[in-house]
Amino acid sequence: MQFQKKWLVIALACTFPLGSVFAQSAADLKKEIEALKAQLELLQKKVNDMGQAADITPLTQQVNRMEQKMDLADNAAEASGFKGMKINGVIETTFNYNNIDRSNSVNATSGVTGTTSTDAGFGMLQITKESQDGEGVDWTLRLLPGASTSSGSLNSVHEASISVPLTKTQRLIGGLMPDFQGYEMPFPNANTTLGNQMISHNALYDLAGATSYTGVGMAYTIDGGKAAFKWMVGNVDGSLDSASSSSDAWNYSYAANSSLKTIALAYRGDWFITDTSYIGLSGLHGSMNRNFNIVAIDGGSTRSDWQFNGQLTAGQEARAAANGGDASWTGVSGFVGFKVVPRLQLMARADYIWNRNNGGGTYVYNGGSTTYGLGPKRTDSTGSYDTDADTGYATTGANLARLTFGTNYQINSNTQWKTEYRLDLSDGYNFLDYDGTTYRKDKTTVSTSLMLSF
Hints:
By secondary structure, the chain is α+β, with helices and mostly antiparallel strands. The chain has helices at 2-80, 203-207; strands at 85-98, 104-107, 117-119, 123-129, 138-143, 148-149, 157-165, 170-178, 212-222, 227-236, 263-274, 277-287, 292-303, 306-317, 327-341, 344-354, 400-410, 415-426, 431-432, 439-440, 442-453. Strands 1-4-5-7-8-9-10-11-12-13-14-15-16-17-18-21 form a 16-stranded antiparallel beta barrel. A two-stranded antiparallel sheet has the order 3-6. A two-stranded antiparallel sheet has the order 19-20. The radius of gyration is 39 Å and the shape is elongated.
C-alpha cells in the first residue's frame, strides 16, 4: 500500500512541470496570434490604400489640370479685358400694312420712339461687361446697324453707358442712355421678361416721352435690392434743340428758342414688391432752352400665366403747342397678357392721350403730320379746324386712343413669331386718307413679325 502511494506521489510531481510548460506555451501563442492579426490588418489597410490611390490619382490629376487651365483662361480674359463680357442681340423682320396710305412695308421699329426714325436697321447688337462680384466697372454698348433718322442721318448707337462702383450700394453712371420712363422695353426678346412682347409700342412710348439722355449721375441699391434709385444730369434729345418757327396755322413755333443744348434732370425709383411685381416713379425736367416737366408712374405684376402692366404720364412743355402756347398732355396705358399654353401668349393693350390745350402738342409732336392722330383737332372730313379769331391759329387739340391686340408664339427658345392688330382712334378727323383729300378719325395697322434673339 505504501509502495503504491509513493509511486502516485512521484507521478503527480512529474506532471506539475508539464502543466507549467503547457500553460506558458498557450499564453505566448495567443500573444503571437494577436500580433499576427494586427500585422495582417495593417498590411490589408496598406493594400486597400494603395488600391484606392491607384484609382483616384489619375482623376485627381485630371481635375487639377482642368482647374489650372481655367485659372489660366480667367487670368488671360481678365488681362485682355474680356472677363464678364457678353454679346447678345435681336434680329427682327416685320411686315406692316395700314389702311391710311395702303402701303406694305417690311422693317423693324423696335427701339424707335415716335417720329425720330424711319429705319431701325432690322437688328440690335448689345455688348455688355458685368463684374462677377458686382464691385467692378460695368458698361453697355448697344448698336442699331443701319439705323437712320427721318432726316437721313445715321443713328446707329442706342446706348453707350458706363457704371463705376463707389461703394457696394452706390455707383457712378454716365454716357448715352435711353429714357427711364415707362414699362415697355425698347427691344423684343424671346424671354418675355427681358423685352417688349408686342410688335409696336404704346402711345406714351411713341409720343409723350424723351428718347435718350447724355450725361452723368448716380445709381443706388437700397435695402438689399428691395428698391433702387438712379438720377442723371445732362443733355436730352439734342436733335430737338434748334430754334425754328412756322407761319402755318397748325404750328406757330417750336419749343426750342435757341440752339443751346437743353440741360435736364432725369431720375427713376423702383420698389420691388415681390420677385414678380414692382412699381416705379420717374421724372424728366429740362431748362436752359426747351423747358419741360414730365412725370410718370408705371408698374407691373406677373401671376402664373397672367401679366399686367400699366403707366400714367403727365407732362408740360413751354412753347410746344400748335399755336405757340404751352403744351400739356396726360396719358395712360395698360397691358395684359395671358399664356394659353406655355408657347402661346395672347395680348391686349389700351392707350389714351389727352391733348386739348392750345391746339395740341406733346413732348414729341405738335401737329402737321396726318398719320399720328394728334395736333389741331380737325372738325370734318375736309380737314377744317377751329381757329382763334385774332391770331388765326388752332385753339383745340385732338385726343388719341389706341387699341392693340396681338399674339406671341414661341417657336423655340430663341425665336418668336408675332401678329398684331392696332386701331388708332382720334376724336378729330386727323388721319389723311390715301386719296390725299379725305380726312378720317381712324387708322388700322396689321403687322406680323419674325424675331430672333441671341
